[in-house]
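User: Good morning. I'm curious how adenosine-5'-diphosphate would be positioned relative to this chain. Could you predict the structure with it bound?
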Amino acid sequence: MTLSVLSLASEAVPLIKTGGLADVAGALPGAVAPHGIAMTTMLPGYPAVMRAIGKGRLLHSYPSLMGEPARLIAGKMGDHALIVLDAPGFFSRDGGPYADPAGHDWRDNWRRFAAFGRAAADLAGGAIKRKRFDVVHAHDWQAAMALAYLRFAPASGTDKPLASVMTIHNIAFQGHFGSEVFPQLGLPDSAWSMHGVEYHGGVGFLKAGLEAAGAITTVSPTYAAEIRNPQFGMGLEGVIMAHESRVHGIVNGIDTTLWNPETDEYIAANFGQRSLTRRSTNKRAVEEEFGLEQDEGPLFVVVSRLTWQKGMDVLLEVLDHLVGIGGRLALLGAGDAALEAGFHAAAARHPGRIGVRIGYDEPLAHRMQAGGDAILVPSRFEPCGLTQLYALAYGCVPVVARTGGLADTVIDANIAALGAGTATGVQFDGVNYHALRAAVSRTAALYGERDQWRTIQRNGMKCDFSWSRSGKAYADLYASLAT
Ligand code: ADP
Ligand code: GLC
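Assistant: Good morning! Here's the predicted structure, ligand included:
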């Protein structure tokens, strides 16, 4: 029996991306399809999404959805079904999905994503076109209100109960708004409770989704355990604990049709485990692109949002040391202005040794994974992390903080793992100057032992982080909920 699942996301590759959520939402339909799941993805109609869907097929018109005219349009995302909420008043704007061109969150984000949730709830439950889905799967706070609407204010014609999953990609982003928005959400008074949408005196979108969901997932087993504690739960640890038996950690996969060094069209030289020497062409390309000197030392790379979560402030502190021991760094990222300025200053201090590209550049991210010797991921918390998975596949050794999905996916090159021939990278404890400095030194020393380094690279490339295992885990979860 085929189950139909409506996946609700605020971004998805290849249409719109600001981070790993897009990679996951874009890959999920293909990941679950072999396991009998027909997934339809629903996205907000940002300009890039509207251009991609073209005219589409009109499913429904709202004269006013949370104050704006809106339409639901059906089309395709690759081989899979796509439904777009076309609401120009909410989504047809310059800037990013969540913030204006200056980087400030859109002031009406609560209304934009409540509208998305309202329309998703109407669609999921069968109130539109009488087509009901078996399961609705909401990703992060932007999609979470769909589950609250289904629970507290289902449209007439909704088939109940509908199985639901709420996935936390990052609990730091919660969609927390003031209590004044509550009367405008179109929810009954009964929704304003500790087990509804109320959260610390305001409205919590993610919290509302967690309270309403049949199952909660997050993107690695370690993060699923970490968010029970205040240090990682960011205020929602109590909610997580209260629903503990329904929380699952399913590690993300990577889309091997997009991320495969043997076929990647963005890179100068394709290679595999048995042709690792061809990486040197890619390394040279990165050195040239970043204006770096060429020598025998390790080339570190970073592809990251430049934020506190990612430990980029600590990385800045160790850059003099990294250069001092003969390393070089190529960094691609965008984010906090102070961090961007810090990396520019470091590059100016170390010409030829540190190269910085501020911005977002997908092809360059591929080239850096293909040419870098090691990627630095010093995250303070990391629900899953994808760059270390791409690195493993590309023979770029990950150097990671031991947290969340980083802890679950990289095997530290300690003496035991080196002896057993299982090491795939370097892990360190605690995101601070001393720990990261030591990890950089340890990586440089390992790099100096060429045979050992090749073994670490090959071990990583042998790992299977494709979607095959996790696609089945999601499919099994949907099936268990839908019965
Ligand atoms: P997060 O979603 O928290 O940012 P992930 O590691 O899960 O972290 O995913 C980040 C994704 O965004 C990866 O696909 C990575 O390659 C990509 N990425 C991050 N910054 C950039 C950038 N400046 N240019 C291109 N790709 C980037
Ligand atoms: C979030 C997390 C990241 C995760 C991604 C996809 O952006 O920060 O760790 O890999 O979602 O699940």
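The longest helix spans residues 109-124. The two ends are 11 Å apart (CA to CA).
Let me know if you'd like a different ligand tried.
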